[in-house]
Amino acid sequence: MTRSPDFLPVLSRGRHRTPVRGACFLEYTALLAGEAFSDAPACVDAELAAVLRHANDVLSDADRPRLVPLLGRAIGLVVPAVDAGRLRREVAGRFAAAVGVPLSVEERRWADGADVDRLFWSLMLEPVPVSTSAAWVDRLVERLDLLHGCFESVVAELTARPAPAAG
């Protein structure tokens, strides 16, 4: 089991007033990014933040440390507001394709409308529901890793600067 160093806040459910009382995944991320202590850090896309906030709060205290290896990975996974819809639609499409199941009408609407949070949680039961809590937690951590990868690749593409023209 991975755990945080003793001098850092303990991951725990919900919002916190100060890091001394613990931190949710996003409050911890804000600290690591050098931002003010908040569960809505500016350095993370709002849809990715929603998924991470829900993941933090749905896990038990015993399982929450499984998120520690993901801490810091969401920093910088954000684009200017003008590109946010494109980022989220592209991420939703890549994530759904990687899960590899046909989307329902409602799931397609979420993907097309850039509702990554709803799509993520809907696909947690795909391709088949898991039979134990431990297997569900394993799937959640694997899917969070996959979602981060989708965000990382799309953000990289959207923020890549074109090479200067040869003169």
Explain what you see.
This protein has 167 residues and is mainly α. Helices cover 49% and strands 0% of the residues. It is built from six helices and no strands. Helix 2 runs antiparallel to helix 6. The longest helix is centred in the C-terminal third of the chain and has 27 residues.
What is the topology?
Elements: H1 25-32, H2 46-58, H3 81-99, H4 105-112, H5 116-122, H6 133-159
Q: In a few lines, what is going on in this structure?
A:
By secondary structure, the protein is mainly alpha-helical. It has six helices and no strands.
What would the principal axes of the Cα set say about the shape? Answer: globular
Secondary structure class reads mainly alpha
User: In percent, how much strand structure appears in the residues?
Assistant: under 5%
**What string gives the helices and strands in order?**
HHHHHH
Strand elements, count: 0
The number of helical segments is 6
Which stretches are low in confidence, meaning pLDDT under 50 for 5 or more residues running?
none
Distance from N terminus to C terminus (CA atoms, Å) equals 55 Å
What is the mean pLDDT? Answer: 89
Task: Tell me roughly what share of residues is in helical segments.
Answer: 40-55%
User: What's the story with the biggest beta sheet?
Assistant: none
Radius of gyration: 17 Å
